[in-house]
Design goal:
Layout lengths: L1 H19 L10 E7 L2 H18 L2 E7 L1 H14 L5 E5 L2 H7 L6 H4 L1 H10 L2 H6 L10 E13 L10 H13 L5 E3 L6 H10 L17 H14 L11 H7 L4 E5 L6 H4 L7 E4 L11 E10 L6 H11 L2 H13 L19 H11 L2 E2 L7 H17 L4 H19 L2
Parallel strand pairs: 1-2, 1-3, 5-6, 8-9
Antiparallel strand pairs: 3-8, 4-6, 4-7, 4-8
Helix pairs in contact: 2-14, 9-10, 10-16, 16-17
Length: about 425
């Protein structure tokens, strides 16, 4: 046991030193501009970590929050014009899309040893999703988000662990007056469908990204269950928030991201001690897969400060940053999940949340890293919503989605 503990400590120390070491060509007195996709409070939390790096290096960081609705278009414009920030923090697949257009630095090519270490330290479900099909790395993990199941512990003795148990639990709750379950993050779109698709044993693309794979028996079973969630299981088309759904008792089971947990008791004191968190129910394949999201961070190819920007990004993957940001996020009723498994102990949220979160991270999948996915996923969502809310035939829906995805591969692939 002592030998195992020693090896773990050596790994953590080595990881911290590697992620905090500056490239030899990083300069002092440089201002790094970051476009942060998110809200002002999250950007403030990032700035608190940046203060530590500034004090260590003599450089400065300017963080600008950009809303999710505008960030990708702004980054695309910057890629075209060659003007903008040094670092982009945004959607996991953005690095691949912008990098293929020449807008992002290929970090695997420029910093191969550092990138190998980052890959080893990161959650595999997240990291695999941000690697381009040709092995290029245009972004590295900044933070993780993961789906979890919230439930009323005073109404549900044991959280449902399978689809069938979820059906039975919801039926019993509805008999007592509840409306059913609710989905918040990814309500009615491709994010929410990813969960059930993989739980059914399906996947979006073939392993080699040569074709769409969603139009399958597993895909059909998943889509049928997704429709069932909004039909007999009571999920509303218009999303509710977790606290309201749990507090009123209308939705004693709510599926949302981990970040929600930090604000429930403060906003709904009547719920204190009456709610819990669990991994998602497993599907017929036995998998309880959840979509893993979060942000990648990459460097625009037109930046004049590439080495210094990468030094800052390495710092953000280190222990000091993880400790600072988890605390700063929690103070703002949010939760920061470091993508490096070694820093999981710093996550603020309590034992129950951390246990469920760490269990769910063992079965997680990111967005597809296949060419064209970023460009077509909105059209995929429209097809899913036609099945969910307009009674479009399920088999027709999968054929349409398959065609959209394959057209994307042809148009945007190499």
């Amino acid at each position: 046991m002592k030998r195992k503990l020693t090896l773990v400590l050596v790994f953590v120390v080595a990881l911290s030193l590697l992620l905090s070491a500056a490239p030899s060509s990083a300069r002092e007195g440089v201002e790094i501009v970051v476009w942060f996709t998110g809200d002002d409070q999250q950007a403030e939390a990032l700035s608190i970590a940046a203060d530590i790096w500034e004090a260590e290096t003599g450089n400065t960081v300017s963080v600008e929050a950009v809303g999710w609705g505008d960030a990708y278009a702004r980054a695309l414009t910057a890629t075209t014009s060659g003007e903008g920030a040094d670092i982009l923090m945004g959607g996991m697949s953005w690095g691949i899309s912008l990098g293929e257009l020449g807008g992002m630095v290929n970090l695997a090519e420029k910093y191969p040893d550092d990138i190998a270490a980052i890959a080893e330290a990161s959650n595999p479900g997240f990291y695999e999703a941000i690697v381009s099909r040709d092995g290029s790395i245009y972004g590295v993990p900044y933070n993780l988000d993961i789906y979890l199941m919230y439930y009323r512990t005073d109404l549900i003795e044991t959280p449902p662990a399978t689809w069938d148990e979820l059906r039975d639990t919801i039926a019993a709750l509805q008999a007592d007056g509840a409306q059913g379950m609710a989905i918040v993050w990814g309500n009615g779109d491709w994010l929410g469908f990813t969960n059930v698709l993989y739980q059914a044993g399906g996947q979006w693309y073939t392993d080699d990204c040569s074709a769409a794979a969603v139009n399958s028996d597993e895909g059909l079973e998943a889509l049928d269950f997704y429709v069932e969630m909004f039909d007999s299981l009571g999920a509303p088309a218009e999303s509710t928030d977790v606290g309201t759904g749990l507090s009123t008792g209308d939705y004693p089971i709510v599926i949302d991201g981990e970040w929600t947990a930090s604000g429930i008791d403060a906003s709904f004191p009547d719920l204190a001690g009456k709610w819990g968190v669990a991994p998602l129910p497993a599907g017929p394949s036995g998998a309880y897969t959840a979509f893993i999201g979060g942000k990648m961070m990459g460097i625009f190819s037109f930046s004049d400060n590439v080495d210094t920007a990468f030094d800052f990004m390495k710092f953000l993957g280190g222990e000091a940053s993880a400790e600072a940001q988890t605390a700063a996020y929690f103070e703002r009723q949010n939760i920061f999940v470091p993508p490096q498994t070694a820093w999981g102990s710093y996550i603020k949220g309590g034992e129950v949340l951390n246990e469920a979160l760490n269990a769910q991270l063992l079965d997680a999948v990111g967005p597809p890293n296949c060419y064209g996915w970023e460009e077509v996923n909105n059209d995929v969502t429209l097809q899913l919503q036609a099945a969910l809310f307009e009674d479009q035939d399920l088999e027709d829906t999968l054929y349409e989605i398959e065609a959209i995805m394959n057209d994307g591969l042809e148009e945007f692939g190499k």
